């Protein structure tokens, strides 16, 4: 039905764009709703869900602390 949603956090993805988050949100809504493209009477709800999930995804990615990366960076700081 739809392609897999890819991981958007480091180290799996270094540069994540708004377009990447929107594409992931779209894939999620398609999977959950069962619609690749919604009928006209469902389009507003479908599109609102995509936007809400893209926003939540951005908040999540901004909030995550990737410890391995932080730990590696911390070790690098002590090496100098």
What form results from the Cα inertia axes?
elongated
How far apart are the first and last residues' alpha carbons, in Å? 51 Å
Q: Strand fraction band?
A: under 5%
Q: What gyration radius follows from the Cα positions, in whole Å?
A: 17 Å
Instruction: Enumerate the spans where pLDDT stays under 50 for 5 or more consecutive residues.
Output: 70-76
Helix/strand-derived category reads: mainly alpha
Element order: H for helix, E for strand: HHH
Number of helices: 3
- Please state the average pLDDT score: 84
User: Care to count the β-strands?
Assistant: 0
Largest sheet: none
Whole-number total of structural domains: 1
Share in helix: 55-70%
What does this structure look like?
The protein has helices spanning 18-33, 43-63, 67-79. Residues 70-76 have low confidence and may be disordered. The longest helix is centred in the middle third of the chain and has 21 residues, at 43-63. It is mainly α and 80 residues long. The chain is 62% helix and 0% strand. The chain has one domain. It has three helices and no strands.
């Amino acid at each position: 039905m739809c392609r897999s949603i890819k991981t958007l956090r480091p180290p799996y993805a270094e540069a994540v764009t708004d377009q990447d988050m929107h594409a992931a949100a779209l894939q999620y809504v398609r999977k959950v709703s069962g619609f690749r493209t919604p009928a006209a009477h469902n389009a507003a709800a479908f599109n609102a869900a995509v936007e809400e999930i893209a926003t939540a995804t951005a908040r999540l990615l901004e909030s995550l602390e990737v410890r391995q990366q932080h730990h590696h960076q911390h070790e690098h700081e002590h090496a100098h």
